[in-house]
Design brief:
The chain is α+β, with helices and mostly antiparallel strands. About 40% of the residues lie in helices and about 20% in strands. The radius of gyration is 14 Å and the shape is globular.
C-alpha cells in the first residue's frame, strides 16, 4: 500500500494509530474478565480472514496490533480486519459469549 493510501485508510479508523509497519488499537474494559471475553470474540473473524492480530492483555486493557508479516508491512487485509475489530468493539457488551471456531490447522 502507498503511504497516502495507508493515511487515508487510517483516518477512517478512529482510535487506531500507526506504529511503523503496524496499526494498533487499545481499548480499556471494566475488568480482566471482560477483556479476555472480548479477545475471545476476535477468534472467529480472525480465522475467517485468515489473518491474526498480535494481542496484548494487561489486566483490563487490550492492545491489538495488525501487520502482514509475509508482505513486510501494512496491507488491505490489515485494514479490513481493523474495520471488523472496530465494529466488534462498538457492538460488544459485557456478558457476550462468542463462539470459538476450530482453527484450520
Amino acid at each position: 500500500m502507498s503511504e497516502s493510501e495507508i493515511s487515508q485508510r487510517l483516518q477512517a479508523l478512529p482510535n487506531w494509530k500507526r506504529d511503523g509497519q503496524t496499526i494498533k488499537y487499545t481499548h480499556e474494559f471494566k475488568n480482566f474478565v471482560h477483556a479476555v471475553s472480548f479477545v475471545n470474540c476476535l477468534i472467529s473473524p480472525s480465522e475467517k480472514a485468515a489473518h491474526h492480530p498480535d494481542i496484548l492483555i494487561s489486566y483490563n486493557r487490550v492492545t491489538i496490533s495488525l501487520t502482514t508479516h509475509d508482505a513486510g508491512g501494512l496491507t488491505r487485509q490489515d485494514f479490513e480486519l481493523a474495520e471488523t475489530i472496530s465494529k466488534l468493539v462498538r457492538e460488544w457488551m459485557p456478558g457476550n459469549v462468542c463462539l470459538v471456531v476450530e482453527g484450520s490447522g
